[in-house]
Amino acid sequence: MASLVNSLVNALTGNSDSLCSVLADHGFQVEYPLSLSYAHDLTNYWSAACSDLHPECMVAPKNAQEMSDVITALGYTQDQFAVKSGGHSPNLGFSSTQGGLLIVTKNLDQVVYDPSTQTAVVGPGQRWEDVQGKLEGTGRAVVGGRLGGVGVGGLLLGGGLSYLSPQYGWAANNILSYEVVLANGTIVDANAEENSDLFAALKGGGSSFGVVTSYTVQTRPMDHPVWGGNYIFSGVDTAKMLAALQDFVEYYPDEKASIILTREHAPLLDIWVMFLFYNGEKPPAGIFDNFTALHPIDQTRTYDSYADLLKNGDKYILHGSRYSIAGETIPVPKDMSPEVLQSIFDFWLDVNNEVLLETGMVGTIDFQPFPRSIAQKALELGGDLLDFPPNQDYILLQITLQWTLALSDARMHDATQKLFKGFGRLITEHIANGTLPNVYRPLYMNDIGADQDYWGRLRTRNRALQTRLRYDPKGFFQTRTSGFRLS
């Protein structure tokens, strides 16, 4: 394909044609404003604010070679660009761009299962419910997203929490090989034998190192029905709910069990929504008793397939609103003072009430148990950039603010900043007074806002930086596209 690259380069350096027109002239699938495909991809974001950014055009490479040609051609321009997988990140510029080129991975949607190795090759343009659906009948599953409509690419590059994580670690720990397009357009494989430093850096390193065009993943047994769904709680005493959560984290009952506990707060809404999963037909007695004792509306059942359970969560991916996110990491010691979670919750509620009357406002806080078994499994599978210690339990916090009008953007952005800075201050105070242990607390990339310091919280940062300098010495991805940048 060198002649195509040469032709692209000659066209770009020899006249004033835009990159979009050059790519279109050379047979790439290019989408322009006013076309139906452009409009569809522009509106296919979780946060409507991302749709406010209008690229000059979009290109949808069909394979790694086309992706290589696009990246090579970008190197001969000064155009900004972004790469979009599922479009679930609400951080502006991470998978969206104003002007420049938007690379959409929707054509890189392969799911190819190899029964001899029980591995699957998965493209970044897929969504998790479809990946699992295509594995139906194999008796296997991929360790991936908990909501079926989330995209593959972004989740895996950020590490990836899964309902299966207590058994098998981060989703990224189950990746055996990456096919990557580097800043100079070279296509390489990154695995334990080839480019092993890049392989390690991609396990939680985001998009700083290259564009991944396929993932070879180890599948896991899934030849049985699974149980899960939601509990809905209304009018439940907050202290009792937080006590049930704390007990679940401190005495994690079963590695096959997984939950997310969520509080939703709006002018006419104030409920707890709990996501539950058990990797089996029914959970053993006692697993969720602390929660059932609080008398939820029970929306759980046994699902014939894991894919069907993931699709059930899609009703909580609400499109059409504007969103911001932020996250924090709480270390959980045995017999932790209930004051810790209560102080976090009370602060969250106070800040939410300050913006409660913004049009369409819904505030959400997610408490995600992160038992030490996840870090233990991660180490057994070779580790990752997040490098959580195997002897410490955590809760990963995520907050979401939802609203309708662009007029509210600045106020909601300020509230988001106030929340994550306040969480950090509260946790630091609890550490200072001995209520919490002074331990390593990395952030989970997929749950944090663009203003948070992902790399500054990683003890593996320097190792990752050396890898970035090796594979992108000129800083192509650092300067030409947005994300959690490493410099």
UniProtKB/TrEMBL annotation:
InterPro entries: FAD-bd_PCMH, FAD-bd_PCMH-like_sf, FAD-bd_PCMH_sub2, FAD-linked_Oxidoreductase, Oxid_FAD_bind_N. Gene3D superfamilies: 3.30.465.10, 3.40.462.20. The keyword Kinase does not apply. Keywords: FAD, Flavoprotein, Oxidoreductase. It comes from the Eukaryota. SUPFAM superfamilies: FAD-binding/transporter-associated domain-like. One of its GO terms (molecular function) is FAD binding. This is Bifunctional solanapyrone synthase.
